[in-house]
């Protein structure tokens, strides 16, 4: 009897079991044989679980059962996920995962172990929750050269920004509301500082480039500095502010990979993605722009991707799929973001004559677009620059009068 | 030497060759071996083509060359596409296609031939042009029961409706503009009457259900009766009018499958899909709502899907993939649309007292929402009903005063 197992019985793990068992008939039909739930591994006790008889605290139960063909690793973090995954793959068992941290750090190594052992390591759930993006990017768009990927990759920050945009809330009030609704963790750092989105854009960038891109090499900036006034300026200029993970090829086989808040023009579909939803825009040299939209987190949406991968792994027994990338051998494949071109929204505070400051800004930035907001203090000036290398923006800001203080800079998509 | 061939050197065929050859390096890398362009079949002459040496007018050149592994059939129509495809599959050659007519009519039969001969028949390009939808629906969402699929599946009609919505154009002016821009054919019937969208929703419905659904069994209504006044009423009530192909399971293993104009609420992402773009929304019992968006037609976008399928076919030589459905053995699997629930926008003309007509409508429809437009003639009344079985709407309309004439009925999504 073929079996699957689930490692980690938290939100995603219990959702995986729930969805697989609920849709068991159609899933069995798709796999073409019956595959039963063999083990649930978790160090906690679940006295009320209907699966009590298959709960285990011993990883070796799964590792050493030859009937286990595929395992969902949904504990997250690097350890012991990495060791578990590696050992399972070495035994020829396929592993599917929602663990973006592990895929972003150790993907290439684990793909290699999988390939050598005729197993699969699949990770559709690691980016965008239930949104199909890994397979579409790798398979359906295989005929394209990927020119850019931009996405709203984190539901927590998108919920916060949506509340700031639609209900004029402050960042801290919106964060509190997200926490009350279970959309943000008690320690929200990984979300609001962009680390979660950074892992995800690095996974997409690695897949597009074919080589491992590490999150620590990417420029990453969160949303905690965004104010309701920035949101209002952006609205008046026809933009919404979103946290965007972005990747595109630059010179010399490198990629620009960044996570930061960006102004999105209202005719871009990403500007209409609200609340905890995610969306990923991909541009290929054949297909043009395509966008994938859906719930980027949550129990059943993420389980949807995990179960889809389980089905694929069980269908492709001993036939490794090609959804993977190679090691980058210590090479930093990310180009210096300061060399990338961008337009920027800049808000400054002026000590002294605001008109003189505007003149200084106008001269330095060569036709910036000044923007307004209600009740703007005379001492505040906001403008959007033309697109230019970011290092040039820095230089120009350095040339401004000394009585001009930079309050915020938000890039434009 | 492995070869691929292209049958039909029109817009999609030439785009397929262009994209494959432009991205040859990365494609070769993905396939893991060199595959050269063996033949281009077309009955016309292409004296200036750089591929003159491989143009042929004889299908047997392709059929009988054992080095040809995969063929792109992009001529469209049923004959001779069907015969070509069947013969190629019988020889164990994989076929990939953008031919929605053929897939919607003969899919099940061709999948069976493919399976028996260890070949693949792939059709990502048949729905949504370059938008990845077939594989995501079949693979990534395999863990779900599909609860509904709704899509803007035809770029021509979406361009026309967008012009009617954004520029207050009449249907006929917008159609003319579409023709001038090359977005509509000289005979636009298949697009504006919904036949093209109907083939596409039937392909998606067949894939979701696992059995062949025929376009002629589906309810299909086009957009030629939509007026600028309807558009204005819809706007004032917070909706946009879009041509929507829609499918969802009803009782007894059947599906509701319809194509018709629908009012889309403005908080639905589909309402923001403008111009020649397509978008498909899928709801699964795990994933919730996901939306796929992009260019639904055009040379390189469609070629992107064709080339993606060619790569997959070349990768899966002699290993049939499972993207397919079974025959339905003459059974009509589509349920009666009159038994489906919907709300409806209804516009009537009143001979006599409009207030009395409103009263009659209010009584009969139990709290309809009356809506207004600028310069509405006194004799015109427009309202939106509550959701109810469509047959009940018909019955209620029959009960209205005789001096009330129905001008238009548009369903609400």
Keywords:
homodimer, 413 residues, Dihydrodipicolinate Reductase, domain 2, 11-stranded mixed β-sheet, 14 helices, 25% strand
What does this structure look like?
Two copies of one chain form a homodimer. The first copy, chain A, is built from 14 helices and 17 strands. The first copy, chain A, has helices at 11-22, 24-31, 59-63, 81-90, 100-116, 134-140, 155-166, 171-180, 189-192, 195-209, 228-236, 299-315, 354-365, 390-399; strands spanning 2-7, 35-41, 55-56, 68-73, 94-97, 121-122, 146-152, 219-220, 239-249, 255-265, 277-284, 288-295, 341-350, 369-371, 380-384, 388-389, 404-412. Chain A is 36% helix and 25% strand. Chain A is an alpha/beta fold. Chain A has three domains: 2-129 and 300-315, Rossmann fold, CATH 3.40.50.720; 134-295, 2-Layer Sandwich (Dihydrodipicolinate Reductase, domain 2), CATH 3.30.360; 337-412, ACT-like. Chain A, domain 2 (Alpha-Beta Plaits). In chain A, helix 4 (81-90) packs parallel to helix 5 (100-116), helix 5 (100-116) packs parallel to helix 10 and helix 7 (155-166) crosses helix 8.
> Helix/strand-derived class of chain A?
alpha/beta
Q: Which range best describes the helical content of chain A: under 10%, 10-25%, 25-40%, 40-55%, 55-70% or over 70%?
A: 25-40%
Oligomeric state of shown chains: homodimer
Strand content of chain A: 15-25%
Mean pLDDT of chain A: 95
CATH topology of the largest domain in chain A: the name is: Dihydrodipicolinate Reductase, domain 2
CATH class of the largest domain in chain A equals Alpha Beta
Tally of discrete structural domains of chain A: 3
* Secondary-structure arrangement, i.e. CATH architecture of the largest domain in chain A: 2-Layer Sandwich
Instruction: Report, as a whole number of angstroms, the end-to-end distance of chain A.
Output: 52 Å
Chain pair with largest interface: A-B, 54 and 54 residues
Shape of chain A: elongated
Largest sheet of chain A: 11 strands, mixed
Low-confidence stretches of chain A: none
Instruction: Write the CATH homologous superfamily of the largest domain in chain A.
Output: Dihydrodipicolinate Reductase, domain 2
Cα-based radius of gyration of chain A, to the nearest Å: 24 Å
Total beta strand runs of chain A: 17
Count the DSSP helices of chain A.
14
């Amino acid at each position: 009897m073929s079996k699957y197992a689930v490692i980690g019985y938290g939100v995603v793990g219990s959702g995986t079991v729930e969805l697989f068992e609920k849709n068991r008939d159609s899933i069995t039909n798709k796999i073409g044989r019956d595959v039963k739930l063999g083990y649930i591994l978790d160090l906690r006790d679940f006295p009320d679980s209907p699966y009590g008889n298959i709960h285990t605290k011993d990883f070796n139960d799964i590792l050493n059962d030859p009937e286990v063909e595929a395992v969902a690793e949904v504990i997250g973090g690097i350890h012991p996920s990495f060791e578990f995954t590696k050992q399972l793959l070495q035994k020829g068992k396929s592993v599917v995962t929602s663990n973006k941290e592990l895929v972003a750090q150790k993907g290439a190594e684990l793909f290699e172990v999988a390939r050598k052992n005729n197993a699969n390591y699949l990770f559709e759930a690691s980016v965008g929750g239930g949104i199909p993006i890994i397979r579409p990017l790798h398979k359906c768009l295989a005929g394209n050269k990927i020119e850019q990927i931009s996405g709203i990759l984190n539901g927590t920050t998108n919920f916060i920004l949506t509340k700031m945009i639609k209900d004029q809330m402050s960042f801290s009030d919106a964060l509190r509301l997200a926490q009350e609704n279970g959309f943000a963790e008690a320690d929200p750092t990984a979300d609001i500082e962009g680390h979660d989105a950074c892992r995800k854009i690095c996974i997409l960038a690695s897949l597009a480039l074919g080589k491992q891109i590490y999150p620590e090499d990417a420029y990453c900036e969160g949303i905690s500095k965004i104010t309701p006034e920035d949101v209002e300026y952006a609205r008046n200029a026809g933009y919404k502010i979103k946290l965007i993970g972005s990747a595109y090829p630059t010179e010399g086989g490198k990629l620009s990979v960044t996570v930061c808040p960006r102004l999105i023009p209202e005719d871009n579909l990403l500007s209409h993605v609200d609340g905890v939803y995610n969306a990923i825009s991909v541009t290929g040299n054949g297909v043009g722009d395509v966008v994938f939209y859906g719930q980027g987190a949550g129990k059943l949406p993420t389980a949807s991707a995990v179960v889809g991968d389980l089905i694929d792994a069980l269908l492709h027994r001993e036939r490794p799929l090609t959804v993977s990338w190679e090691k980058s051998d210590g090479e930093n494949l990310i180009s210096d973001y300061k060399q990338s071109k961008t337009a920027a929204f800049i808000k400054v505070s002026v000590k002294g004559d605001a008109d003189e400051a505007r003149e200084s800004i106008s001269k330095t930035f060569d036709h910036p677009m000044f923007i307004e907001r209600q009740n703007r203090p005379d001492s505040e000036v906001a403008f959007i620059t033309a697109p230019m290398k970011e290092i040039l923006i820095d230089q120009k800001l350095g040339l401004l009068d000394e009585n001009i203080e930079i309050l915020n800079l938000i890039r434009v998509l």
